[in-house]
Amino acid sequence: MQSRTLAVGIDPAKRAHQAVAVLYPDHVMLTRTLRNRIEDIERLDDDVQALAAEHQAEVVYGLEDHRRYGEALLQVLQARGRRVTVVNPLWTHRQKDFYGQDKDDVIDARAIAAVVLRRGQRLPDATDAHEETAALREAERTLQDLSERFTRAMNRLHLQLSMVYLDTYETFFSDIKGPWAWRFFARFPYPQTLNGLTAPELAEVLRELAGGRVGPRSREASRQALEQQASRILEATCRLREQPATVVHRLRAELIGQLCGELLQIHESKGRLKHLLDDELLPAPGRSLMAMCGVGITLAATVVSQIGDIRRFPSRHAFAKYNGTAPAARSSGGRVRHAARKSSNHRLKRAMWLMALAAVRHDPLARAFYDRCRARGLSKLESLKRVARRMSDIVYTVLRSGQPYDRARVEASIRRRAEQTAQEPGRGRTPVVDEASKRYRAPAPTP
Fold it and tell me: Which domain holds residue 59?
């Protein structure tokens, strides 16, 4: 930063923000707590501008959270033509350790201002905080919350069904995690409710619950299949239907009905969100990621919403540090060792691990790289870590280039590199997925 810089660090909160203005090199000029209101933000900016004019300094604001509680701050300050930068929370955390004081809002704001003074030219401007990015992030997190609710409800439904149907309920449908099965159990929560129904009558009910059509069959074939399924259900529950229904059955029926209703609601909500993401919200870079093995609409939305602008990472190595797939170096006494990086974007790290798991299971290229890591004596976990790092490199390259993942080009690059390695044994080997991450660039020169 320039020698005459007035850095204003702001720690945003829901009701009140904490601001600290620091003049280069480290002179605290202003400390203020302001309400989360437009007039208070404008009053702070007026006072800061007066200080800057008095000391002939340039004003630069720094925010950690410019998308949620800091959104109003960003809008007001940018409307006034101020420069607002985004500060990485990891840097402010290290700066707070330097001060060595107890954690409070004033120290947080001062640490943000100190980071602005020392890293100002390398800090990105808070210009990517638009409504679409925030909406994409909220949609992705809502999908994840819905998935967790779905898992809890399914586990509880399995428990309740096993208490009334024993183990027979698992034979009723090929997939119990579907709306057809949930509607059936909401209609028939315990075996005694099936009494009085014949196979053709139950088959007609099944057709109604399925929405009128079952599978890519003709009408007659569907009718026969449904009657066979109805006969199988009635036969499996024959002895259970002979038992008298009690108040416990009615209580469990209420629980099963509520769980089935909750599952149907979650299924519908997830479908609407995914449809909206696919049609409108997910930008073009996210669609490029969906060409990769194991990357669907939800995972692509997670990656894009957590990254924001990929250009803020100068290299794939910086991106790997941010998402936690690059290990942290620990050196002492001339010895260097590597450990898992704890300071990272954990949502993005989880996405990279899910990509790696899917790639190892379904992509022969990633599986070959994983097997070579295992052959070198690495454990399964360590091998998977290396696959996750390669997936990080591929994601970085795809987002930077704007081109979708092209498997044919990757395979051609691998064959070409294998031929070169066979002709020149001294070159050494290059991991397969490394080539996938470099497919849009010319090969590195031979050392």
Answer: 5-129
